[in-house]
Structure formats: structure tokens, C-alpha cells
Amino acid sequence: MDSFVLIIFGITGNLAQIKLIPALYDIAEKGLLPKNTSIIGIARGKKNQQEIKDYFKQVLHLENRHHKHPIKNQVLEQLYNNLHYLDGYLDDPNFYIKLKKYLDDLSKDGVNCKNKIYYLATYPNLYKDIFKNLQASGLNKQTSGWVRLMIEKPIGVDEKSARELNQLLLDYYSEDQIFRLDHYLGKETLQNILTFRFSNEIFEPLISKDFIDHIQIIAAEDFGIGARGGYYDSVGALKDVGQNHLLQMLAFATMDPPSEFSNLAVTKQRNKILEKLIPIPKKLVLGQYENYKSKENVDPNSKADTFFAFKTEIDNDRFKGVPIYIRGGKKLAKTVTEIAIVFKNPANRLFKHMDSGEEPNILFYRIQPNEGIVLKILVKKPGHKSELEPNYMQYCYKQTPDNHPFPDPYERLIFDAIKGDQTFFNDAKEVETEWHFIDPLAKQKKPPIIYKEGSWGPKEADKLIEADGRSWIEPSVEFCPI
Ligand code: BG6
């Protein structure tokens, strides 16, 4: 694999601390960082070499609650050897002259700076200055190597601004250089949906309007906004996760088989589903948890949603008429992310008159926790009587808290970008299509309904689904125990 220099704009920010530095450590620990690879962290404050090392160490040991496995000194030392820091203001053209000189000096020392990955872990209002100045200082040239750009949400705040940002990106980079990251696409459990569906043909014929009654998707968190009040209050839950992670979950669960396992083929099928989603503004409920307005950096009169529930449908032959109910938010009863495909009950089901006899079969993709793929079935209760018992056929990852059997999404996606593989990144059209669907919902500016912390959101969300004679599935902890 090519060696490269990874330049992180915003190395002292939240994203770098929580996600990027731990991911880099994990990539290094697995021996996946090519030799001669350098990491240059950029931020405004001054730091010498020892201070940047101390900062990495502190982040890995203390700051990051997600990174629970032990840190090996040997791996840290290896990272330190390749670690650099440059201070500067990203809107100052002189900074890029300094960066260019720094890279030239590193090259003279034998470091490969021909291939570059720029990671934008900084504020979107700086993007234009960054692109323009990188261009002006010759740092975007691909004459002797490649240049890639990693960027993540928010990619705009609506379809129009997403288009503008995509245009700005395309003014400086070509689509194959731009890695738009939605970390849900890097989740092992989400990627496994494709394997499960397209390697086990027995299920695929059932995934259609002929057999499916409805689909439910949930991304609930039992915690609040933490220290992210400033950002969160400007977007709300629907835009924070509804526009991206939840739509991607739906796309993975319902897309047609790609013609091959390649970026173009997989992205095409995701796009085809997203384009066919029907927004139903009347079928949207927004909520806000009780004490949200008193949180740090939140407007005391905030109308931001911390919960949403909506109904949609896919306007294609395969799913026409199948209702899809999606909900997500913060300070809810449980932290759980799952997709539930609820099957129709055949009219002639033999045991339907018995207790539980009308319970539907449900295929669960449990994204987290208790990760697994699970089929809810009815079985005979052992004994002389003819009695039914709902139970589960399950594939579980058997994850334990101190054992991390699959890579963190950031680890995977940064590694994919190193390889130049865009299969699990969004292209420009995909992000715009997601906004195209969300805009009519978000533009209603409905005031959110206050709900109790630790509940499943406002009662109106129950009514949304009950109006169709259905109800939300209480996420089960009975399967795939940790
Ligand atoms: C982020 C959102 O994109 O995804 C957060 O900004 C949310 O608000 C997070 O908590 C959820 O990600 P995960 O991987 O913890 O489910």
C-alpha cells in the first residue's frame, strides 16, 4: 500500500479526540499503517513535539470513553515517530506557505509527502479558505502522487447548501478524491446486512411488499447532548442523524442487489432507494426532552428537536405501499439502533387462534448493542399441550465490553480512504438526495413536543403509528446478550 501524509485540520477538536486519534491508534496497532506514513495535526495553539505526543497520550488514555481496550506503549511510540504538529490559522494564506515548506522539509528527510489525505475536522466556514489556499500553494497537485479529502457532516443544512458545498468541493477536487464520511456506513453490523441479504438467497425473495407488512427503524440514545449544545441546537435530531444515518440504514435494508461489489454498483443501489423515498410532512412528530433548554450552549427558547418520528414509503415496484416508520433521538428509554422487518401473517396460519398465534415474524438487524441478525419466530412450547412460544433464531457477534471484535467505523473508513475505496462513502448526489427527502419534513418548522427523559418520546409518536393499526416494537434485550 502507498505511504502518505495525513493532514488533520482540527487535531485538538472534539472529532479528532473522540474518533480520529483512537482510530489512528487502532490502525497502527493492527499494523495497517504503511511504513513512512506521517500524520500532521493542525490547530491554532502552539505545541512542541513533546506536547503533541502528550496530547495524543492523554486523548487515548483519558479523554476517550469509546476506546476501552488497553493502549500499548510500543504502538504509541510507533505513532509518535510519525507524528507532527503545525500551528496556524486556516484562513491565513501564510499558513499554507509554512505547511508547504514543512512538507518539503519532510520530503528531504525521506518521508513520502507525494500522497496526501486532508481530513477536515474543523468548522465548515473554513472549508473555502482551506481549499483555495491548498490550491494556491500547489498542495492540491496530483502530479507525482494522489490527493484525497475526507469530509463529514454537516454536508450542508438543506439540499441547497449541500449542493453549494458539493459544488465548492468539485471546484477543487474530482469526485474520486472526495471521501464524504457517514460513519454508519462503516459499521460492521450495517455492512453485514449486505452480506446477509445477498449471500443467503433464501431471505431475499421475502424482502418485498408481498411478504412485508411494514418496516421500523430506530436509533435511540439514553443520553443527552453532552457538551455539543452549540452544534446540536443549530441542527436538531432530524438533521443530525435522520438525514444521514437512518436513511442509510433504510437503504442497506431495502436496496436491490448491486451488480457487483464495487463502489459504483453499491452506491448506485443506495441512491436508487433514496431517490424513491416519499416524504410525508403530515406524518412527522418532533419532540424535545424536558431539560434540554437548560443545557450548556442551548438557546433557552430553543425549538430544536431532540426526537423525531416519521412515516415514509418507497415508491418502487418492490416496496410500494409498505409503510416505513422511523424514529430516533436523545434521552430516550434505551440506547438501541435496529431495523425491524415485520412480515405479514398469512390468513391461513394454522395456530393463529392460540396465545401469541397472531404474532408476526420479524427480521431484526440489531446494529447496536446486542449486535446480531435475528429472526423472531413462533415455536411449540415443549410439553404435552399445544402451546406457542415466540422465540429467536439468531446470529450474534458475542461482543463483550473489553473485547472489540470488529473495527470502529472510523478505523474502517480511514483505512478505506487510505486504500482509495469509496464503496462506503457517500457521493455528492447521495447527500443531496437525502436532503431532498428531509427538507419538506424539516421545513415545516413544527414546534417540538416536550417529552420526559427516559421515555420513548412524545405520545404523539405512538399515535403516528397507531393510526395505521400498528405499534412501535419495544427493542428487545432478550436476544444476543452481551
Ligand atoms: C453522530 C451524531 O453523527 O452520531 C450524534 O452527531 C450521535 O448525535 C451519533 O450520537 C451516533 O453514533 P453512534 O455510532 O454512537 O450510534
What can you see in these coordinates?
By secondary structure, the chain is α/β, with parallel strands linked by helices. The protein folds into 2 domains: 5-152, NAD(P)-binding Rossmann-like Domain (Rossmann fold, 3-Layer(aba) Sandwich), CATH 3.40.50; 185-407 and 427-466, 2-Layer Sandwich (Dihydrodipicolinate Reductase, domain 2), CATH 3.30.360. 34% of the residues lie in helices and 21% in strands. It has 13 helices and 15 strands. The strands form 2 sheets. A 9-stranded mixed sheet has the order 14-13-12-11-7-10-9-8-15, with helices on both faces. A 6-stranded parallel sheet has the order 3-2-1-4-5-6. Strand 4, helix 5 (127-136) and strand 5 form a beta-alpha-beta unit. The longest helix has 18 residues, at 237-254. The structure holds 6-O-phosphono-beta-D-glucopyranose (BG6).
How would you sum up the major sheet? 9 strands, mixed
> Any idea what the CATH architecture of the largest domain is?
2-Layer Sandwich
For the CA atoms, what is the radius of gyration?
Answer: 24 Å
Looking at the structure, the CATH topology of the largest domain is: Dihydrodipicolinate Reductase, domain 2
Question: What's the overall average pLDDT, rounded?
Answer: 94
CATH C-level name of the largest domain: Alpha Beta
Low-confidence stretches: none
Instruction: Report helical residue fraction.
Output: 25-40%
Class computed from helices, strands and strand pairing: alpha/beta
Form type: globular
CATH superfamily of the largest domain: Dihydrodipicolinate Reductase, domain 2
- The run of helices and strands is EHEHHEHEHEHEHEHHHEEEEEEEHHEH
Say what oligomer this is. single chain
Tell me the domain tally: 2
**What bound compounds does this protein have?**
6-O-phosphono-beta-D-glucopyranose
Number of discrete helical segments: 13
